[in-house]
Design a protein that fits this description.
mainly alpha; 6 helices; about 80% helix; disordered C terminus; membrane; DoxX family protein; transmembrane
């Protein structure tokens, strides 16, 4: 029973993260600022992989195969966003920034059901 809820939570995180990549236009600029080649295409591929793999995890299908791309995405995200903070600003700032998740707040806090 607990493993089902863990799968739902993990899948939810990746699916909502990918939806934000489609909805928030700043992600393209962020990818370009990090020096990622072809930022729009890379952003699209990452978002599609997160949706697909997140859905597979929720559905309990091909878990081992679905986690590989997600692990690669997370390693890349840590390398591009957190490691520079650790190297330039030190451990305290790195720990503080690691506990914040600036991009999730607008979707979670401002989410409203569709109304007419």
């Amino acid at each position: 029973m607990l493993d089902r809820w863990v799968r739902y939570a993990i899948g939810y995180v990746f699916i909502t993260s990918s939806i934000m990549k489609f909805l928030i236009s700043d992600f393209k600029m962020m990818f370009a600022n990090y020096g990622i080649p072809f930022p729009a295409t890379t952003l699209f591929i990452v978002a599609i992989l997160e949706i697909g793999c997140g859905a597979l995890i929720i559905a309990n299908m091909h878990i081992k195969k679905a986690t590989v791309p997600l692990i690669i995405i997370m390693i890349g995200a840590l390398y591009l966003t957190k490691v520079p903070i650790l190297l330039k600003q030190g451990m305290l700032q790195f720990a503080f920034d690691s506990f914040r998740h600036d991009h999730a707040h607008p979707l979670i806090i401002n989410w409203r059901p569709f109304t007419t």
